[in-house]
Amino acid sequence: MASSSTVRSAVDAHASNLGPHVVGDVHGVVRRRWQTTYIRRLAVTDALVVTAAVATAQWWRFGGSDAQVQSQSLDNVSYTLISAALVAMWLGMLTVFHARSPRVIGSGPEEYRRIATATMRLFGIIAIAALLARLDLARLYLAIALPAGLLGLLVSRWMWRRVVSYKRAHGHFRTSVLAVGAHHSVRSLAESFDRGTADGFLVVGACIPGHSRRVDEHITVGGRPIPVLGSENDVVDALRESGADTVAVTATEHLGHHGLRQMVWDLENHEVDLVVAPGMMDVSGPRLEIRPVAGLPLIHVEKPSYHGASKFGKTSFDIAFALFALVLVSPVMFAAAVAVKLTSRGPVLYRSERMGLDGKPFQMLKFRSMVQNADTQVASLMERNEGAGILFKLREDPRVTRVGRVLRRFSIDELPQFVNVLRRDMSIVGPRPPLHREVEAYDGDVHRRLLVKPGVTGLWQVSGRSDLSWEESVRLDLSYVENWSMVGDMLIIAKTLRAVVASDGAY
Q: Which residues form the Bacterial sugar transferase domain (predicted)?
């Protein structure tokens, strides 16, 4: 059996992460306490945002007068009554679509998706109802209420999510997890949770199939010991010892159908959540769907979408965004071009051959940030290479000019790549554009990076940029290739702006 000192130290460490709460609240009481308070505040904020948006729309369209709805079927219906009904229906739709569910609060993309879906469905229903009832609703009234309310809801949720992320970064608002699975599965799960600190999951204990409780053992992840508290048959006792409020099962092959069902029954009387990790890395979102087949809940994995309507939508967005961006940053680009030309010899633009969609080469444009003919000096600097894997990187690269350091720090040197987007060589969001020599060194699954166009930004840009290891860079790019969506692209663009301003990982 694991020694009491080992378990107690783990519990004490976890208690300090949870803040000033009692360690004995081991059955989800702590988590449900802050979740209940948080959800109540979300409900208040949602009500204020929706009411403000609808009231603003009515005031903007009608001023101080209480106008009447033009209708062939209803008489004397004022817009004040319509506004009150719209607010109530809007808040009701957010509830119907579980936009404040404990499963999604603070999660980001899924939370935003539910808000957008609820809002669009509501206004679709209103449009159909107005047509059937022959209600002549003022178009400007709806045209103001819809975007104002949707934007307000998304911004307010983003602000609340920043509060949750800050709390989690300081050890609060955590979901403590007891992992059930083999050593390597528990380690992989714990490492994934540690990478996603904003999600708040923390593995505080493990149950290893076939493990004896008499053996004092722990798994070290990121310098933090995770005590092994027995086998798959000791989950209930391990919950009490670890203080976990969630059980994550990765040992489905060891438990089998009957073992997993028995665990569900054993945990019914305990205030804990049970989740099952399917063992598929970096496959998520709309590609996963649970369908019952012959009484078994099977996870169906759809193929990645690279063509058809999704591709058309992405291309249209790329062109529109690139045009807008070029117009917006044209003064910055002009100033950068003048600075490069006046401070060093050589062309203003640097053309680098990169490999694009399906491995086709193209000339990627950047403002020149190095001395002329810098490429010829790579061999002499290879011994000082600090890049991960096959990448060549130098934190203090002697080839970079003084102006180039400023351009790189704020990613100004990459602005000409919007021209590549207009040429349809690149996308706004995608994998990092690789060199020809890097592609030649690819092995195995890394070639899947070439299934989509490389991007001006991507998951690699918002996750550390030059500070990433080669393995992590590949993992992020493959994750994007497998799961890309327009909502995901929007979030990456927003995170990119924040990363550029903070100069995270740029050199």
A: 314-501
